[in-house]
Structure formats: structure tokens, C-alpha cells
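Good morning,

Attaching, inline, the C-alpha cells for the sequence recovery test we're adding to the shared suite. The designed sequence is right after.
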């Protein structure tokens, strides 16, 4: 891999264009979650030590080529400065208006953050001329934004055609972790997958069923599986008209000898604000909703994890936002983190709700790798060739 840590690259006095993902959640102008900022710190610190002149490229939201004041990166530049305990200069100009005078303000080992790259027309269309202009601002390009690498945008893909390009430390770690669960697998390997819709995860299931030993389906997806295998699920969240997808999952899993596990019991309630009670899935009433997995299902999942060497988790087991329905998700995070800490499994987790749950139960540091990448994470698991990864690999 063209990783900055294993290349004989001279960074001293070089202007380095560093593409990161600072699309962090914000409320009333304040950042509410820092995971994506923290992940880029190792690459930034390495470049500071090597006396590079660091120019940060990033985005927040979807301004679609227009300046949207509420989507400025300036508050994020201030937070990054606070975390690094180092000044981060900020430039509000669009790319075509940035001058050599602006760039010459950057000293060795110092940082300049540019305004939201998506304010520029040409970024999201991967415009050739915009890519050339962007590349002209620096001497070296580094992609450390795996979470943006499924986008064929100028600052992710187009720029690499015009400037020496490399992977950052965070994106390298992400790719290596995902390779270990997709192509360099230590079996037995288990997928725990949830979410509301089977239709959005069918490609992941079909791709991984060919390589994995177990697929455990939870959440709304499990409700859909249960319904289309003849069970009543009351008022539970469920995707309709999925008989062909369910049959496809069952057929693929049988063909490749991958065991599918669905809940046998559940925590149910008449409302998401209510209390829960344990029921077998075959006994659910018409006015009840499945909101978590039950103790027998948890026990089954623990047994499968105990017999695994590799575990991938994407999607909570229930409505964990209510403490009455968080136990399944909490127990899954607990057993995975325990086995990981004991060095008995290689564990990877990803997806917004999954990361939120892991954070809630304070297990973030006890997984082998936790991805904040979202769409890129899912597309990689589907077996797709991500534009940002392909672009770096083809850059010479």
C-alpha cells in the first residue's frame, strides 16, 4: 500500500493536501461527537513531526456547490486546534480564490484548514479543471478519509491524477481491518447484522455468506425474516414485499454452508416508551412490537461468538435508546469486547447506530477496530471497488 508511514517521502517544507472527514454531528453550532476528529490526529501529528505544511481539506453536510454559512468548517477548525493544542489557521475563500500569499502563511509543522470543500462547484462532479486547480495548491496529496472514499469527487479521486498521492494512517488501518474480515479471514468468522431494511443489506449478506461461517440477523431485519418464514410479529418494524430477498438469503447461505441465526425470543412492548416483557417469537400478539432480543437469543449469540475467531458487527439488536430495550445490544458489545480484550477474537464494528451503541456502553477501546465510515464501510463489505481507494492505487 502507498502508505505515508512506509514510503521514503520527504515532507519537510512540502505543502501537503490532507483530505479528512470532519463531517461531525453538530447541535446549535457545537460538536456533539468527536470520533472522526480523533481518528485523524495520528496522521496530523506525524506530518507535524516531519515539518510538513499541512493543508486540510474536508466537508460537512451537503451544500451542493453553494456557500451555506451553517455548514462552515470554522468551528471544527477551532475544536481541532483545541485538541492539538496548536493553532489551526482557517481560510474562508473558495479554492479558485486562494492565493500563494494565503498558502505562504503556513510555516513548517503548521496547519491551515480550508473552507468546506463542497462549497466549490466542481467538487462533487469530479470536474477535471477543478481537480487540477485543487492539486496545484500542494506538493503531495494524502487521503485519510475512508468514509468519503466511496465518492468519486475531486478531493477524493480526481486530484490523484495530478499530484503524488498516498494513504494516511487512519485509512490504512481501516483497509487492513476490513481485509482481515473479507479476504484474509481467520475462521470461524461471524457476522452480526441489523438495521431496519433487508433490502439495504442484501448485497452485504450475499457477499459475506460466501466467506463467513455464521450470520446472525437482529433488529428490524430479523423481524422481516421472521414474518416471511410464517411467524406473526405484531406491530414490529418490518419491510414488506421481501419474500424474494429472504429466499435469496436462505439459498445463498445453504449453498455456501453459512448458518443463519434469527431471534428465538424477544423483548416486546405495546410502545417504544413502555416496559418490556420476554416472549418467544412464536407467541407475539397483534398489538405488540419486538424491541429487543431475549435472553435465549443472547445466550445463542454468546455461544457463536465464543466459537469464533473473527467477528464483524453492523447494526444494534434493538431499540437501545430506551434502557428497557438495550440489553441485547449491550450484551453483544460486552461479549465481543471481552473476547477481544482476551485476544481471542479479531473484532470489527461499523455503522452509525452501532458506533453510537458502543460509545454508550463505553466499549470503543475494547474492539480491534471501530469504523466511523458509514456508506464506504458498507460498500466495501458488499465487495465494491471504492473510487478513492482505486485512485490511490492507480496513482504513480
Amino acid at each position: 500500500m502507498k502508505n505515508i508511514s512506509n514510503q521514503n517521502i520527504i515532507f519537510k517544507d512540502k505543502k501537503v493536501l490532507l483530505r479528512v472527514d470532519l463531517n461531525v454531528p453538530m447541535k446549535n453550532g457545537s460538536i456533539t461527537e468527536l470520533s472522526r476528529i480523533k481518528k485523524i490526529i495520528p496522521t496530523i501529528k506525524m506530518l507535524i513531526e516531519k515539518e510538513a505544511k499541512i493543508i486540510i481539506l474536508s466537508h460537512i453536510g451537503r451544500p451542493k456547490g453553494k456557500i451555506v454559512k451553517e455548514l462552515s468548517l470554522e468551528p471544527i477548525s477551532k475544536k481541532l486546534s483545541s485538541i492539538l493544542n496548536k493553532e489551526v489557521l482557517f481560510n474562508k475563500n473558495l479554492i479558485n480564490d486562494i492565493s500563494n500569499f494565503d498558502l505562504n502563511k503556513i510555516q513548517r509543522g503548521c496547519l491551515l484548514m480550508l473552507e468546506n470543500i463542497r462549497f466549490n462547484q466542481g467538487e462533487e462532479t469530479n470536474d477535471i479543471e477543478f481537480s487540477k486547480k485543487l492539486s496545484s495548491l500542494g506538493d503531495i496529496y494524502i487521503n485519510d478519509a475512508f468514509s468519503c472514499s466511496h465518492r468519486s469527487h475531486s478531493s477524493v479521486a480526481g486530484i490523484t491524477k495530478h499530484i503524488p498521492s498516498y494513504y494516511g494512517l487512519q485509512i490504512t488501518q481501516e483497509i487492513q481491518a476490513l481485509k482481515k474480515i473479507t479476504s484474509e479471514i481467520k475462521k470461524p468468522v461471524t457476522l452480526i447484522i441489523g438495521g431496519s431494511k433487508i433490502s439495504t443489506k442484501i448485497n452485504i449478506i450475499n457477499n459475506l455468506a460466501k466467506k463467513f461461517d455464521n450470520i446472525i440477523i437482529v433488529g428490524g431485519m430479523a423481524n422481516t425474516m421472521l414474518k416471511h418464514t410464517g411467524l406473526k410479529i405484531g406491530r414490529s418494524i418490518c419491510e414488506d414485499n421481501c419474500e424474494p430477498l429472504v429466499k435469496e438469503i436462505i439459498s445463498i447461505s445453504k449453498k455456501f454452508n453459512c448458518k443463519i441465526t434469527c431471534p428465538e425470543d424477544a423483548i416486546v412492548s405495546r410502545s417504544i416508551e413502555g416496559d418490556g416483557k420476554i416472549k418467544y417469537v412464536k407467541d407475539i400478539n397483534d398489538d405488540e412490537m419486538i424491541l429487543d432480543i431475549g435472553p435465549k437469543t443472547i445466550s445463542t449469540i454468546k455461544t457463536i461468538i465464543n466459537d469464533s475467531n473473527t467477528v464483524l458487527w453492523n447494526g444494534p439488536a434493538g431499540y437501545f435508546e430506551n434502557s428497557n430495550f438495550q440489553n441485547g445490544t449491550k450484551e453483544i458489545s460486552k461479549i465481543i469486547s471481552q473476547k477481544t480484550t482476551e485476544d481471542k477474537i479479531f473484532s470489527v464494528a461499523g455503522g452509525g447506530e452501532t458506533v453510537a451503541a458502543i460509545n454508550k456502553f463505553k466499549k470503543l477501546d475494547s474492539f480491534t477496530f471501530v469504523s466511523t465510515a458509514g456508506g464506504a464501510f458498507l460498500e466495501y463489505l458488499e465487495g465494491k471497488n471504492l473510487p478513492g481507494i482505486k485512485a490511490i492505487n492507480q496513482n504513480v
